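Re: beginner question about structure tokens

> Can someone show what the tokenized structure looks like for a real chain? I only ever see the sequence side.

Sure, here's an example I had lying around. Input first:
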Amino acid sequence: MTIPALASYPMPADPVENRVGWRLDPSRAALLVHDMQAYFLNKFETTQAPVPALVQNIRQLREACDDAGVPVFYTAQPVAQPAGDRALLNDFWGPGLTQAQFHAQQPIIEPLAPRAQDTVLTKWRYSAFQRSDLREQLRARGRDQLIICGIYAHIGCMATALEAFMQDVQPFFVIDGVADFSEEEHHMAVRYVARRCGMSVTVAQAVTALAGESTR
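And the corresponding structure tokens:
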């Protein structure tokens, strides 16, 4: 039991209707690049949609955050995950990248590799907040908005958005800055966040807001 090979699909890029009208504020925001490790990207045919657009769009987001002074966080699963730590993930996904043949695929892909100024969080569960000090780091930096991009949209990205909401952090879920098992699940995650726990925004909307304008 593992993550299946994932079919190509076009990257969604249309704005959606959000339940709330929060404004993305670069003085309040942080960027989370979620699980962009080679192991997870390699489940796709990486030369086919949505992967090239995903990587390009995350790079654009990161550059906009750099220009706006927005801190950048990453999540990455470790290769060493004792059974007691991996726990129920084994039931759904098997041993994953803990298998020796996948250890070389653990790093975040080179085009998005963390820089010295970035923060990398060890990932243990779907939500980036679980068993990490992400909330405390956001609070220490005066940040209560989280821009979420990466993979997979309906699993870790959506779980992180939902937990951010429950911890009084406004999530901004980037429609064309995430990718998923399928186009259907991608759209489902975007709609769920827009209707229940955050704002779903396009890369263009996020970049505009980071430059000091509204996401509306």
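Each token stands for a local structural state, so reading them left to right follows the chain. The two ends are 42 Å apart (CA to CA).
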